[in-house]
Design a protein that fits this description.
Elements: H1 2-10, H2 12-32, E1 37-46, H3 61-72, H4 75-85, H5 96-105, E2 107-113, E3 125-134, H6 137-194, H7 203-244, H8 250-267, H9 273-286, H10 293-330, H11 332-371, E4 377-382, H12 395-420, H13 427-434, H14 448-475
Antiparallel strand pairs: 1-3, 1-4, 2-3
Helix pairs in contact: 2-12, 2-14, 4-5, 6-11, 7-10, 8-9, 8-10
Protein name: Lipopolysaccharide biosynthesis protein
Keywords: Coiled coil, Membrane, Transmembrane, Transmembrane helix
Length: about 500
């Protein structure tokens, strides 16, 4: 301890100089540092019992806070905040980009997660804290409250606008899909009607129709053969009658007319003109008018020829229908592929229409919850109040730390100088260095020059102490008439 005291006394001017300079530098840095005030507003997320499944609440908390921060930190919103609060009014030289960047960097948005809830859950967000820094306490509180009001008041309008936009889009999409479905269904019906015989579902009926066609053709062949035999019989009877040149009696003519009418009714429809003619002929015979036998036979032959012609036309129609069915059955694979493709497209449109309908129902539910005030909403739980002290309030602690660091640096410099010029100045130092005690120890007598230098050193020490105290008082603004040195404001401080 004696060596240390001796070291300090010998190097006192150097130690005081370094210590005073360090303390003054610390004071200047503390005084020149800008004062920043910080204020915070707390917003609570109110989750009602009826939770909206399709709203932003289904997003994770981190994503939702990010969306809110992006809306608040948008360039247009920051410009509105600057205009509403009159920020940077005393610094017109700043550009708009610098103003917006300073406001953006001085505002922070944090989220508070609900305890016991997964981070990815839509209910994980419990509250939002908006913190703002500015050069004055009132400005910091005003900025935080303005952003909080934007979140609370504009959130409902933004969600309502999103719901209306979603509903308009989905309604238009539903109308478009409905028109496409109607047109596609008509197209499928028309295609199925054009290719009815080629449809896989119609093959059972087509096969049944083919059987009916074969039966009708067989019946037509039998009728043709019967008519041909009847015609031959009439021709043979006519020739026999003409050879004998015998005239038929009226009773025979009536009998022949009745037989002819019966045959015609068996093969022709009741409303056929030939039936009407034969009935008129029978009435004429019953009235006593005779008809020659050759005329009756000729009319019977003409009737048989007409029936044969009709049966032949019927066979032609049956054959044409059979060929048409054969061609249609050859196109079954192609029609099946095309119809299957059309049905797949129809199912896709139907699925899309069902999805759009489900989304419209969700949007309508959101709108109903919004109108009944049952949707998710933000509540201003705590307004930001002007802080009493700046953020950097530990000035005394920093001053003490600066003074201690300066003293330690001064002692270190003095110790280094002693090591550079070592000397044994005391008996104990000599004994520790040599291991023996000196026999005689004489006190050192300074020369007149050293006495004068010692006096100058005392004056220097006093001057350093007085000057250091004066500068320190001036830096902290305690010297009357001398204000503290000005500090250039930072962009955050200019918010005041």
């Amino acid at each position: 301890m004696e060596d240390m005291i001796s070291l300090i006394w010998r190097r006192l001017p150097l130690i005081l100089t370094i210590s005073v300079l360090g303390v003054l530098i610390s004071f200047y840095m503390i005084v020149s540092s800008p004062r920043t005030y910080q204020a915070s507003a707390v917003i609570q997320l109110d989750m009602p019992a009826a939770i909206d499944q399709g709203s932003d609440s289904s997003l994770p908390a981190s994503r939702r806070v990010q969306l809110i921060e992006q809306r608040l930190m948008a360039r247009a919103n920051l410009r509105d905040v600057v205009e509403r609060l009159g920020l940077f009014a005393d610094t017109p030289e700043l550009s708009e980009s610098d103003k917006l960047q300073a406001l953006r960097s001085s505002t922070r948005i944090e989220s508070i997660s609900a305890p016991g809830v997964s981070v990815d859950s839509r209910m994980s967000l419990a509250a939002i804290i908006i913190t703002s820094q500015a050069g004055t306490a009132r400005t910091a509180a005003a900025i935080a409250n303005d952003f909080a009001d934007s979140v609370v008041n504009r959130d409902r309008d933004n969600r309502k606008a999103r719901i209306e936009e979603s509903y308009e889009f989905l309604a238009g999409e539903e109308r478009r899909l409905n028109e496409q479905l109607a047109a596609y269904e008509r197209q499928i019906v028309e295609y199925s009607a054009r290719n009815e015989d080629s449809l896989p579902t119609s093959q059972e009926f087509v096969q049944s129709e083919l059987g009916q066609l074969n039966e009708l053709e067989s019946a037509a062949d039998r009728d043709i053969m019967a008519l041909q035999r009847e015609r031959l019989a009439l021709e043979a009877g006519n020739l026999a009658a003409m050879g004998t040149r015998s005239s038929s009696s009226l009773v025979q003519q009536v009998r022949a007319a009745e037989i002819e009418l019966a045959q015609a009714r068996r093969t022709l429809a009741p409303e056929h003109p030939e039936i009407a003619r034969l009935e008129a002929n029978l009435e004429r015979l019953n009235s006593g008018v005779e008809i020659s036998a050759p005329d009756v036979t000729l009319r019977q032959l003409e009737l048989i020829d007409t029936q044969l012609e009709e049966l032949n036309q019927e066979k032609i129609a049956l054959d044409a229908r059979r060929k048409e069915i054969a061609l249609a059955r050859a196109r079954i694979p192609q029609v099946a592929r095309e119809l299957d493709a059309m049905n797949r497209q129809l199912r896709r449109l139907q699925d899309r229409y069902a999805e759009i309908s489900r989304q419209i129902a969700q949007v309508e539910t959101q709108q109903l919850l919004m109108n009944n005030d049952q949707a998710e909403r933000f509540l201003l739980l705590e307004e930001a109040v002007p802080p009493e002290n700046p953020v950097l309030s530990d000035r005394k602690k920093k001053a003490v730390m600066g003074a201690g660091a300066s003293g330690a640096l001064a002692l270190l410099a003095a110790f280094v100088l002693e090591l550079m010029k070592p000397a044994l100045r005391r008996e104990r130092q000599f004994a520790r260095a040599t291991g023996t005690r000196p026999i005689i120890s004489l006190p050192y007598r300074p020369t007149p020059a050293e006495v004068t230098a010692r006096r100058y050193r005392h004056v220097y020490v006093v001057a350093v102490l007085v000057l250091g105290a004066f500068v320190a008082l001036w830096l902290i603004g305690r010297v009357p008439g001398l204000p503290s040195p000005g500090v250039v404001a930072t962009p955050t401080e200019r918010l005041g």
